[in-house]
Design a protein that fits this description.
ADP-alpha-D-glucose binds at residue 15. Helix content is 39%, strand content 19%. The protein is an alpha/beta fold.
Length: 480
């Protein structure tokens, strides 16, 4: 089966969050199920700088008014199609924001161009290759199935994955003429959304199947609390809604072989984590003692519950714990966390920015990872924590609920607990969870049991890739 995957970021080439990890790992996992995937992504400077010996496969002289070229290249096991369109992507900053952190004003055109190019490839414009199915990711690629509906191309089945419904790609109606869609596409059964243009909404209305990245999140987005205004649209497609939990690349995330981990280890050699723990203490200038090190590796935003972390930081120290934070985001939250570190030298350490190697080392050296998200479609850091024996302390929501087994009395007695869940997501709720963690940590046998059970968890892509392959097959066999 041939699949065209369309994503605005793909690890290891370009990453701002979990979307990149999924779009980079899933195609490789699908190979075991005889699914051949080509992934289309934008030709950002960071991408073009890394790839080697690309082949020009397609010229698009007028892609929404700008010239573009589709390059093909193999990179670390991925078959990539790169949309080289300098007018859209050759600029400083990140994939979505300028160097000052502000959204590019033409993001609508940049990602409409990506979607239009994907629809052209779906129609067979790429010489010698045409997909059997198209899989799009989030609002940046969601217009692909809209273009597939309205352009004169043979119908192919399409799947849209929602990684986070909070990001919808909503723009003023004045952009509609620039999309080059027929006038009747501006309708409620397509991209019209309360008088505006909704990229994600259009994708939901036109894709043949919708997936989310955990079963719990699939249920949550049907409610007003989590549906972010699109719960009615999703409910109208409930028969085609599937919750498939994410996996991780267990070759990249492997404490026994990870190149950035100072001392490798496994479930039977957990004592080897101690050297990594000392490295964490050195990097964050912590006191070298036996107090548990709680870590946070996250975007520093309200959604991720980082305001709660900042508010309870003093209490964590008062209880005898240490806290290290890696991430960036809202300036006020960055400032609050840095202020906490200044108040508690040797007990709290904060590193502002993105540091992939350090995120690995923190999982390998810290005792527990705190993930207090107010909503979390799937989450990957708790999966990394399970894999590395860094006990997850998580809010009871979305994929966090699906992937971490709470250390309640029954689970502990059955020796199946893998972490600590808490609800509600408040300062009180988090502090109760941390008190539980401190209690468990004092019992080294019990803490080791939690670590080992977590490391037994199947966090690979194998089962999830099998579900995606089955979904693809069912859609293709229906002849959509």
């Amino acid at each position: 089966m041939k699949v065209l995957s369309v994503s605005s970021e793909v690890f290891p080439l370009i990453k701002t969050g979990g979307l990149a990890d999924v779009s980079g790992a899933l195609p490789i996992a699908l190979q075991a199920f005889e699914v051949e995937t080509k992934t289309l992504l934008p030709g950002y400077p960071a991408v073009l700088k890394v790839i080697r010996d690309p082949v020009v496969r397609l010229e698009l002289p007028d892609l929404l008014g700008e010239p573009a070229t589709v390059l093909e290249v193999q990179h670390e096991g991925l078959d990539l199609l790169i949309l080289d369109a300098p007018a859209y992507y050759d600029r400083p900053g990140g994939p979505y924001v300028d160097p000052l952190g502000k959204d590019y004003p033409d993001n609508w055109r940049r990602f409409a161009a990506l979607s239009l190019a994907a629809s052209e490839i779906a129609a067979g414009l790429l010489p010698g290759w045409r997909p059997d199915l198209v899989h799009t990711h989030d609002w940046q690629a969601a217009l692909t199935s809209v273009y597939m509906r309205y352009y004169p191309t043979p119908e192919l089945p399409s799947v849209l994955t929602i990684h986070n419904i909070a990001f919808q790609g909503q723009f003023g109606s004045e952009i509609f003429p620039g999309l080059r869609l027929p006038a009747h596409a501006f309708a409620t059964d397509s991209i019209e959304y309360y008088g505006t243009v909704g990229f994600l909404k259009g994708g939901l209305q036109t894709a043949h199947a919708i997936t989310t990245v955990s079963p719990t999140y699939a249920d949550e987005i049907l409610t007003p609390e989590f549906g972010m205004g699109l719960e009615g649209v999703i409910a109208s497609h409930i028969d085609n809604l599937h919750g498939i939990v994410n996996g991780i690349d267990t070759d990249v995330w492997n404490p026994a072989t990870d190149p950035v981990v100072h001392t490798h280890y496994g479930a039977t050699t957990l004592k080897n984590r101690e050297e990594n723990r000392r490295s964490i203490a050195e990097f964050f200038h912590l006191d070298n003692d036996n107090a548990p090190i709680f870590c946070v590796i996250s975007r520093l935003t309200w959604q991720k519950g980082m305001d709660i972390v900042a508010n309870v930081a003093d209490e964590i120290v008062a209880m005898g714990g240490k806290l290290v934070v890696l991430g960036s985001g809202e300036a006020a939250l960055e400032g609050a966390l840095l202020a906490a570190a200044a108040r508690h030298p040797g007990r709290i350490g904060v590193s502002i920015g993105y540091n992939e190697p350090m995120s690995h080392l923190m999982q390998a050296g810290c005792d527990a990872i705190i993930i207090p998200s107010r909503f979390e479609p799937c989450g990957l850091t708790q999966l990394y924590g399970l894999r590395y024996g860094c006990v997850p302390i998580v809010a009871r929501t979305g994929g966090l609920n699906d992937t971490v087994i709470d250390a309640n009395h029954a689970a502990l007695a059955a020796k199946v607990a893998t972490g600590i869940q808490f609800s509600p997501v408040t300062e009180t709720g988090m502090l109760q969870a941390i008190r539980r963690a401190m209690h468990f940590y004092a019992d080294r046998k019990l803490w080791t049991q939690l670590q080992k059970q977590g490391m037994k968890s199947d966090v690979s892509w194998e089962k999830s890739a099998e579900r995606y392959a089955a979904l693809y097959s069912s859609l293709v066999s229906k002849g959509m």
